[in-house]
Amino acid sequence: MAANSLLKQYSDERAALVQHAMPKAAAIIVGRRRALSGIRWRDDLIITAAEAIGGAEHVAVTLDSGELEANVIATDLTTDIAILRVAGASAGSGASAAAGKSATVSAGADNNATAGSAPANTSLAVPRLLRVGDTIVVVGRTLRGPTAIWGTVQLAGPAWNSRRGGKIDQRLELDVGFDPSFEGAAVIDPDGNIVAMAVPGPYDRVLGIPAATIETVVAKVDQYGHLPRPYLGIRLQPLWLDDETRSKLGRKARAIAAVGGVDAGSPAEQAHMELGDLLLTLDGHPAESVNDMACRIASATPGQTIALEVLRGGRPLTINVQIGERPRH
Q1: FRET partner for 12 with CA separation of 20 to 30 A, picked from 59, 195, 276, 295?
Q2: Which contacts (CB < 8 Å, 24+ apart) does range 158-163 have?
Q3: What domains does the chain contain, in order, with CATH numbers?
Q4: Model confidence, pTM
Q5: What was the pLDDT predicted at 187?
Q6: What whole-number distance in Å separates Cα of residue 139 and Cα of residue 228?
Q7: CA 199 vs CA 8, 77, 113, 208: distances in Å
Q8: What's the pLDDT tens digit per position in 130-148?
Q9: What average pLDDT score do residues 99-112 get?
């Protein structure tokens, strides 16, 4: 009997944790077939996966208490974070709030929505680093209702840059069963805190985008009203090096990033970068390829000054460039 009581207590506590987390979950329909999940970050904001939301600009959000219209106010493909703002919901208590009624969001379908009641706030814990072996539960929502799956943190590594240049605060790989409806779902720790967003990764891995990374993107939107894009104003192309030149430059890669064009009036032009400059380092770190340089520039912040070491006319030269904001059209 004692063993059974412990088992029931364990089951009850797991179920209670999921029920507590359910108000933070949202279901998002892309088109008329694809459904994915989202997170109620605060009263008027929903976070979901940027790649899955695609180019949708307006979505219809169905809460437990009714429907609301939402706008896609920012999509950051470098971190795979999309931010939706629910029209008519009262403003949250700040970027540290993540809560709300469960929701269904329809993109590219019926966007005529009626207002529902605004959800209550729940505190978002100070983001912490997860450990290998930590227990987590992924909480999402499908068209049939809420859904949850338990798992563990399979890999917990240091901060990393995505292939598109986004800075991710911690490398997280999750050992959970996964299907498309969990994309964009909330990853919850045993204390009931949102610690990450679940997204599919390469080779059938499930990645977690940390809460700290999400909050960084949300904070930028709060500050600027949109998501500013870093802008340098150079067009890069690879230049292949022969073995002798590569050895002389002390480079491992067979190609080097060369400036193939400089935009008029750009930060690069103002810093006197020139056509044909060969990029050696960025802030002291070797520039290994065009893709590497593009990703590192994409992860910079407008207003930040970077030091580019270039080779011009056979001589090294350091150029300090202040990153600008990509013009909005």
Answers
A1: 195
A2: 161/295, 161/296, 161/299, 162/78, 162/79, 162/80, 162/295, 163/295
A3: 2-107 (2.40.10.10), 135-211 (2.40.10.10), 230-325 (2.30.42.10)
A4: 0.73
A5: 97
A6: 30
A7: 32, 12, 28, 6
A8: 999 999 999 998 877 789 9
A9: 38
Q: Cβ contacts of residue 4 below 8 Å, gap of 6+? A: none
- Scan for tokens 């679940």, then name that residue: 198
Beta carbons within 10 angstroms of residue 53's beta carbon: 25
Please give the average per-residue pLDDT across 119-139, as a whole number.
Answer: 72
Strand partners, 196: 187, 210
Q: How far apart, in whole angstroms, are the C-alpha atoms of residue 287 and residue 239?
A: 13
- Work out the pLDDT band at 3, boundaries 50, 70, 90: low
- Give the alpha-carbon dihedral of 157, 50, 146, 95, to 10 degrees: 70
Contact 162, 79 (CB under 8 A): yes
